[in-house]
Amino acid sequence: MKKLFALFKTFTVVTLTFLSVFFMVQKVEAKELTKVKFPRTEILSNGNAFKTDPVTLQVNGLYTLTTDFDLTDYDNNLEDGDYFTYDIPAPMSVDARTMEIEDEHGWKVADVVITSNGEHAGGKVMVTMKNLDKYKQASLSITSVSGNINSTFRIKKAVPIATPLPLKGYGKNDRVNIIAKSSQGGAYDTTIQNFSKAGGVIQKKEWTSAALGRSGSYWHPWNVYVNTNKTDRKNFVLKDTLKTEGYQFIPETFKLIRGTLRTDTRGYINQKGQFEVVDITQFLSFNSDYTQFTLDLGNIGTEQYFLTYSTTAKNVQGTTITNYLEATENGELVKPFTNRSNVASSATQSSVDTSGASITIKPARSIILYKRDKETGRGLNGVKFRLTDPNGVSTEFVTADNSQKDPGVYQTPRLTEGEYTLEEIETLPGYKLDTTPRKINVTQDGQVVYWDNLYAPTPVEATITAKKALANRALKANEFTFILKNATSVIARATNDADGNITFSNVKFSRPGTYHYTISELNNNLPGVTYDTSVKNVEIVVADDGTGKLVVTSITGAGDTDALFTNTYQAKKTKKKLTAKKILSGRSLKANEFEFVLKNQDGTVVSTTKNKADGSIEFPEITYDRAGTYQYNIEEVVGSEPGITYDSTPIEVTVEVTDDLSGNLTTSLTYKDLRDTFSNIYVKPTRVISITKTWSDVDNQDGKRPSSVEVELLADGTRTGQSLTLDASNNWQASFSNLDKYDSSDNEIAYTVAEKQSQQATDQPSQEI
User: Fold this and answer.
1) What is the Cα–Cα distance from 46 to 136, expressed in whole angstroms?
2) Which pLDDT score is estimated for 753?
C-alpha cells in the first residue's frame, strides 16, 4: 500500500493570516455556490469571545459576528474560483478587511473579502476557493468542507427598541432583534481588591515551549494583579489551576513586575512609571502536567505586583478555558475582594479565535492518529504502529509532525471501507508500550484516534551538597540543620558533620527537566551563634539518557563554595574589675593621695585610679568578648610627697576568661605570689636650726658684752616656747633640733629666732631662719 503522509488534525480550526494586500481571485471557470448552509451565526463580545445577547448591545461597542458555513452539498464538486457570499445588515458599521484561510495542511484554500457599505449601512462577506488542486495531487477527496468566518462591527447610533434584522444562520428564521444603548461608566473602589485576574482572550501567536515539548500558533494571555490595595502581606502565595482539560500553562511566558500600579474607573490595573522585573525562577513551580502553578512571593509587604503568563489554546469552535486563581497568606485563604464571599478569582474564556476565519476539509475514508503523552498531552514523534486492513495486509508507520507543527500525528492515505486493526509495536524510551490492539471501523467520514501512553522512565537519585563553617569555635557534628526545598515544599533535611559537610542524599527525580531548589539554614537558636540567613539557589538538570533512564547531567549552585554557610560564634561579653590594696605606715592614709596605673602585657596603660581612704584600689571594669589569658601589672606612680617611701614593686595580675561554649564567659583572677598590696612608709620631716651669736665690740674692749644671750624660736611668727642660751661656754652657738618641717596643711613652716631683752643689751630684731 502506498504511504501518504498527509498530516493534519481533523476539525482543527486553522488560523487565518492577515495580509496587507488585496487578494485577487484567480480567473477560472467558476460558479457561485448557492446551496451553502449557514447553520450558526452568533454575536460575540470582542473582549472575551462570549455570546452576547443582541438586545444588550452598547453604542460604539466592538462586537464579532461569527458565522459557520457548510459546503457538504458540494462534496467532490468544488473548483478553484467557486465562491459564495452573505450579507451583514444595516445599521451595523462593518470593518473592511481581506484574509486567506488555511486548512489543516497549511494550504491556503480560500480568500475572504469583507467589504463595508458605509457607516450604519452593513456590508458583505465573499469567500472564494483556491489551490484545491493540491488535494487532487495528493489523491485526497474534497468532502465535508465547513468553516467559520468572523467579522467585526459596531453599532454607532442608538437603537432604543427591538429592531429585527435579516442575518443568515441566526436562530431558526435567519433574523435577529437588536437593541443598542449608550454605556454608563462608574467609579471603582480599588481599596477592596486584594488580587484579581483579567485577560485570557485568545490571540494568534507562534510559540514554542521546551518545557512542554510542543509549539502552537495560538495562546491565551492572562494578567494577575497582586496586592492592589497595598496591604502588608506575609508569606503570600498564588496558586492557579486550569479547570478545563486539554490546556497547559506555558512556563516560558511567566513574567513578574514589581512597581506602582494605577487603576482606572473599571478597576483595571496598569503598569505605570518605574517598575522592576522580578526573577521568579526559584519561587515558581508547576505540577507534572503543567495544569497548575504555585508562585511563592513570600513577605511582599505593601508592594504591588503585575504577573503575566499564557496558556495553550485549542482554537476549536465551542471550546472554553477556565482557570481558578487562589491566594493564601500564612496558609490562610485570601479573598480576591474584601467585600465579596468568593475565595478565588475564576475566569472563563472562549478558546476560539474570533479575529479571522477557519476551514475544515475532511478527507473521506481516512484514519488520523494522535499519539500523546498521557499526563501532558504532548504529541510524541517516533512511535511505530502497525495498521492491518480488512484483508489482513499490514503496513507500519511512525508518528511525526504534521504541517501545523503538531507532533505525534499520522494520517493514512484514502482507505477502503471496513474494519482495521491498529497496534502500537514500538514506543519511545521511558514510555510503557500499549500492546492492546484497537479495532477501527473506517467509513466514508473517516476516523480520528487518540492514543495516550504513560511516560515512566527509571528515576534517578542525586546527592546535593553544601558546606558549613563556624567562626570562633570548633564545629560539632549535627548541631546545625538545613533544608532543601522547591517553590512550595521542603524536599529534604540534613545536618552538618564535624567537618562541615552537608549532604542531601537520595533526592529523587522521576521526570526530566530543570529543577530549581533552594538551600537554607534553620535557626535553632544555639546560644552565642549568629546564623547565616542567605539562601543558596541550586539548579539540577535531569535528562533521559535515550534508553528510558534518567540521569543528572548537571548540578550548579551546590558544593563547598557556592553553597557555603558561615556562622559566627560569639559568647556574651563579661566584665571584670581589678583591685589592689594600699597600706601606709607612719600616719593615717588619705583618700586619693596615691595614684596607680593598670598596664596590659604589652605595657599599654589600660586605666588609672587612686586609692580610697580605706586603702582599697579599684580600676574601671574591663570588658572581655572572648576566652583567653590576660596579664596585667598594677604599678604605683612615684610621687614627691615629703616623708613618703613609695612601693615601686608592681603587682602582677592574671585574668583567666573561660568560654563554656554555650554563649557564656566566666572570669577568674590570681595575683602572683598572692601579693595584692602596696606598702608605703611615712616618716615625719624635721629640721635643725643652728644659731650663732656674733659680736661687733672689738673683742669686748669696753667690757660691756653680757655673759650670755637667750634667744627664742618663733614658728610662722608665733612663739613656740622654745629658747636657747648662748654664752662663751658654747662659743655663742646652739641649735633647735627635731623641729616640724611642715604644718598640718603640709605647708612648710617659716621659723624665726629673736633675742630676749636683757639688762646688758638692747632689743634685737628677730631673724628668719
Assistant:
1) 38
2) 92
The Cα-based distances of 51 to 54, 242, 311, 318 in angstroms read: 9, 22, 22, 11
pLDDT value of position 353: 67
pLDDT of residue 542: 93
**Which of 245, 339, 356, 338 minimizes the C-alpha distance to 292?**
245
Tally of CB atoms within 10 A around 556: 11
Q: Tell which residue, 336, 425, 428, has the closest CA to residue 378.
A: 428
Give the CATH number of domain 686-768.
2.60.40.1140
Q: Which pLDDT value is given to residue 5? A: 31
Q: Any idea which fold 17-181 has? A: Immunoglobulin-like (2.60.40)
Q: List Cβ neighbours of 626 (8 Å cut-off, separation of 6 or more).
A: 472, 570, 571, 657, 659, 665
Q: Which residues contact 118 (CB under 8 A, 6 or more apart)?
A: 93
Q: How far is 411 from 365, CA to CA, in rounded Å?
A: 11
Give the start-to-end residue ranges of the domains of the chain. Answer: 17-181, 190-347, 364-452, 460-566, 574-682, 686-768
| Torsion (CA) 286, 290, 291, 292 in degrees, nearest 10 | 10
Q: Are 268 and 198 contacting, i.e. CB atoms less than 8 angstroms apart? A: yes
Single-letter code of the amino acid located at 106: G
Q: Which three cell numbers stand for residue 569?
A: 560564634
CATH class (in words) of the domain with range 574-682: mainly beta
Nearest to 467 by CA among 563, 388, 395, 393: 563
Contact criterion met (CB below 8 Å) for 372 and 452: yes
| Whole-number pLDDT of residue 445 | 66
Nearest to 126 by CA among 32, 37, 16, 19: 32
Residues 405 and 376: their CA atoms lie apart, in Å, by 17
pLDDT value of position 204? 83
As a whole number of angstroms, the distance between CA 610 and CA 675 comes to 18
Does 17-181 match 190-347 in CATH topology? yes
Per-residue cell: 97: 478587511
How would you write 184-235 as a 3-class SS string? CCCCCCHHHECEEEEECCCEEEEEEECCCCEEEEEEEEEEEEECCCCCCECC
The grid coordinates of residue 546 equal 535515550
CATH for 460-566 is 2.60.40.3050
Q: What CA–CA distance (Å, rounded) separates 92 from 144?
A: 32
Q: Which residues contact 407 (CB under 8 A, 6 or more apart)?
A: 213, 214, 378, 379, 380, 381, 399, 400, 401
Predicted pLDDT of residue 190? 73
Please provide the DSSP assignment of 349-365 as one string.
EE-S--SSEEEE---SS
Task: Tell which CATH architecture fits domain 364-452.
Answer: Sandwich (2.60)
pLDDT the model gives residue 319: 66
Q: Rounded distance, CA 719 to CA 246, Å? A: 128
CA-nearest of 361, 366, 367 to 70 is: 361
Instruction: Give the pLDDT means over successive 10-residue stretches in the chain (769 positions).
Output: 32 30 48 94 73 88 90 90 95 93 81 95 95 76 83 92 94 92 66 85 86 84 90 93 88 89 49 69 85 92 92 72 90 90 81 69 77 82 96 96 80 88 94 93 80 90 96 94 86 95 95 90 93 95 91 94 95 95 93 96 96 96 95 95 91 96 94 95 88 87 88 90 90 88 84 74 47
DSSP 640-655: --TTEE---PPEEEEE
Distance CA 10, CA 103 (A): 10
Instruction: Tell me how many degrees the CA angle 81-366-436 measures, rounded to the nearest 5.
Output: 155
CATH code of 190-347, in short, is 2.60.40.1290
